[in-house]
Amino acid sequence: MGSSFLSIEKLSQRYPDGKGGEFTVFEDASFGIEKGEFVCILGHSGCGKSTIMNILAGLAEPSSGVVKMDGFAVSGPSLDRGVVFQNYSLLPWLSALKNVTFGVAARFPDWDKAKVIEHSTAFLAKVGLKGDTIHRKPSQLSGGMRQRVSIARAFANEPKLLLLDEPFGALDALTRGTIQDELIKVWSDTDQTVFMITHDIDEAILLADRILLMTNGPMARVAESVEITIPRPRNRAEIVEHPNYYAIRNHLVQFLSRGSTEVVASSEGANSPTTVRIDVESDAQAEAEPPAPRLLAVEG
Length: 300
Hints:
- The protein is an alpha/beta fold and 300 residues long.
- 36% of the residues lie in helices and 22% in strands.
- It is built from ten helices and eleven strands.
- The strands form two sheets. The chain has a seven-stranded mixed beta sheet, with helices on both faces. Strands 2-1-4-5 form a four-stranded antiparallel beta sheet, with helices on one face.
């Protein structure tokens, strides 16, 4: 765990319960994320997903445990960690472009104004915002456009870790799909490390390299790490045709449907999540291939 780019070690969060005791949201969360990896986390409301993200962002302190990035403990907010929230969180008095340049100028103080604008404009273009649109204020943009600005701003700052907190939850299905595709493209171009909260199973399968599954709260745990054995690039229309798609999806649905009791009972004492690899395609190929002939020693 300690060798990962991002290392979460025995993280727990507890609050006073108002009766002299404590309420445990989650406990002993331990997992790692490699550099350049795209990881999603799934779980029912109340399991502590957003709390974990706030801790990773440096916006909250855990009750116990530690988060390390590049070998150093995370403490407080930092330009090395960017966050995209569901509600966009744009500065309403600035244009789309200036919302991006504001952060870029802080991230790269040695750059001149022209370079900051060029860099910011390029990232807005990556999410489909060009021309007069980038000079409009957030109130003049649709919800989808605002989220595009938020994503461009986060990627343009080139943080070591990008945190996405249900960034598409407030969008309609068509806009959501378009921006998901744009997010994949920008991530592929930059190879940044991404940790994303979502409630959407299909979204997680489309975007992630791995999906972390949390049991129900209170006393929630990060119980499983499911590898997405579907090659990239992934296309929304074609991904459902891959042999592994529904096998992975069914596993995720069954986990979330079972709730926490059964999973916790089977993983008592385990801090790290169980790795789950579902690869129907490879299994089918292995069964179809005839066994290799045995080599026999022949005496002369």
